[in-house]
Amino acid sequence: MKGGRSKETMEKFIEYYNIQTVSTVIIGLWVIFMAGKEILEHFDWWKNRANKFNKKKSDEKQEKIDFEQKVCDIACTSEKHTETLAQIGEALDGINKRLDDMENERKEDIIANGRATMYHLYEEMKDKEALTTSDYETFNAIATRYLEAGGNAVFKDKIIPEIYAKPVDND
What mean pLDDT value characterizes the chain? Predict the structure, then answer.
C-alpha cells in the first residue's frame, strides 16, 4: 500500500506543480543567480578600477605635496646659508680690517725702529773710512726692511746712499 500511495502522491505532485514549471523555475533561479554573480563581478571590477584611479590621484597629490615641501626646505636652508654666509663675510671683513691695521702698525714700528737704529749706526759709521762686513750687513738688513715698510725722508735720499758708498773691508 505504501508503494501505491507514494506513486499517487508523486503523480499528484507532478500534476499539481507541472514538472516543466519546476524545471523552468530552477533554471530561472540559476540564471538569476549567475546574472547576479556577473553583476557583482563587474561592480567589483569597476570598484577596483576606481580605487586604482583614486590611489594614483592620491599618490600624485602626495608627490606634489612632498615636492613642494622639499622646495620649501631647500629655500629655507638656502636662506639660512645666505644669512650664515653674510655673517661669515662680515666677520672676514672685520678680520681683514684688523689685519690691515696690524700690518700698518707693524710697518710704522719697523719705520720708527729702523730710523732710530739706522741713525745710531750712521753716527757710528759716518767717520769710518771703510765698513766691516758685519757693519754693512747689519745696516743693509735694517735699511732694506725700512724701505720695504715704506720708510723715506732723509734716510732714503742722504744717509743710506752715503753708507752704501763706503768701501767694505773683508774681515
Answer: 82
Judge whether 138 and 168 are in contact, CB under 8 Å.
Answer: no
The residue type of 82 is: T
The torsion of the CA quartet 143, 144, 146, 150, rounded to 10 degrees, works out to: 140
CA gap 23, 3 in Å, rounded: 25
The x, y and z cell numbers of residue 55, run together, are: 590611489
CA 124/CA 145 separation, integer angstroms: 20
Average pLDDT score over residue span 8-26: 70
CB 113 within 8 A of CB 148: no
Q: In three state form, how does the secondary structure of 45-89 look?
A: HHHHHHHHHHHHHHHHHHHHHHHHHHHHHHHHHHHHHHHHHHHHH
**Residue 25 Cα distances to 17, 31, 50, 152, angstroms:** 11, 10, 37, 129
Query: What integer is the mean pLDDT of 20-42?
Result: 82
Cell 514538472, residue?
19
- The C-alpha angle with vertex 87 and arms to 82 and 89, in degrees rounded to 5, equals 90
pTM of the model: 0.47
